[in-house]
Structures are given as structure tokens and as C-alpha cells.
Amino acid sequence: MPNTKKTVSSPEDFDSDIFEQAAVALQLASVTNDSEVHKHHHRKGQLILSVHGAVSCEVPNALWLVPPQHAVWIPSGTPHSCRVTQNARTCFLFVEPSAASMPEYCCTIAITPLVRELILYLAEQEPSYSSESKTARLVTVLLEQLSDAPIEELHLPISEHPKIRHISDTLFADPSDRTTLRQWAEQLATSERTLARLVKNDTGLSFGRWRQQLHLMIALSKLAEGESVQNVAGMLGYDSVNAFITMFKKSLGKSPTQYFSSLH
């Protein structure tokens, strides 16, 4: 008999693929420190919902961020690893490949209050429910609603190319690093033009736009943890709080305060 959800402390301890039901859910309690689930994949598609805090999910060539009241969709068979921020509350929904009309690619989805409550309710139920049960009927409604959920662009294209990986690892370790493209090219023994073309070809973005998107991902994660706007602006190396707010608003259409207020 598999672990029940009430005893699971990590999604790695729960094998969703042994269940034939259209969808099963799992909720994890808060963690006191950042925690990581190593690279793995499922037969079922997986939706990772952030109830509180933020979740980042790495798939081939991209890093997806899940701020509160959003979820990342990972199609069946896609290798992925996840990291949750301190004190995050996370819910996992596992969906049979043929059970719902979901995207065939990874994406971040905005979750309505109805879908959120349906997922949380399902997480309290035993996964081996009958196809004739009330839970099964609820799952039908959930998957219909989920298929219509809007998709948002909250991801960072990443690359396994050693030069780009070195830059991204450095910037994640120290987001305030303002090394220019020319300086990176000198460090990596290549020309500025070649490095610019490499970043563009591998990520689809210019170096400046790519670094700004990396800053946005880190900002969303830190703000979701409860860090102040002022602290996050300083952490990312902005000269002023206003400059950071301008970047954030340009990217997401709202100031940090407005954005997080709209998630409740």
C-alpha cells in the first residue's frame, strides 16, 4: 500500500503513477528552509501549485517560477527538478495524459480561487477513489476549469552551454553583479559579438533582456518569501527602489505591491 498523503514529507515519497485515476493531488506542509526535489519525471502530467511562498522548477532549457496563486504545468514524461522557498506551502496535482486538454509544453498558469480550492480539496482525499464517487465528479469539474486557465510568461530561458551556464550561475549567486557583456566576453575568452549571438541563439533574448528576466524571477521569489521591496532592490543591485519598481512594472504591468495584492 503506498504512503498516504498525510504521512508524505516530500513528493519524492509519493508515486502518483501507480494510480489510474484521472487526477490525484498531494499537499506538502511548510518547510523551514529552502528544499529541493532532484530531477525526475512522471507518466502523469504534473501541476505544481504555490499556495504560499514560491516554487522554482527547472526543465530542459528553462527555469519556471511559480509565485503564489500560480502553478507550473509539466507535461507527461518531462524531466524536471523543483526548489521551494522557505515556509512555502505547495500542492501537486498529477493528471493522466489523456484526462485533460492541457498544453504539451511547460508553462506558468494563473490559478482561479475555484481551481485552487478544488485542488486543495482533492489533496485531502484518498488517491484511490472510485470512478463513480463524488471525488471523481469533482475531478471532472477541476480538469475542465484547468483547461481554460490563462498562461503567463514567468520563465527564464536557460542553456547548458558552459559559457551561458557560468554566467547564470554567477548571477544567481550574486544578482547584483553588473558585469557587462563585453566584460563577460573578456572573461570567457571570446568576442562580445560572438557571446551576444550565443545568448540570443540559446535563450531567444538579448543579454540585457535575459538578465532583466533573471532579476524578475529572483525578485518574485524573494518578495513571495516576505522580503521588502527595498531589500530586493538592493539585492539586485538597483541604484534606487524606484528603478527596480519601474523594471518590475514594465515586465508585469503592476508595481510589486499591486502585483502581490492582486494574488490574494
TrEMBL record:
Using the record's annotation, list all stretches that form the HTH araC/xylS-type domain: 165-262
- Membrane-crossing ranges are none
Q: Keywords assigned by UniProt?
A: DNA-binding, Transcription, Transcription regulation
Name the domain of life this protein comes from. Bacteria
Q: What is this protein called?
A: AraC family transcriptional regulator
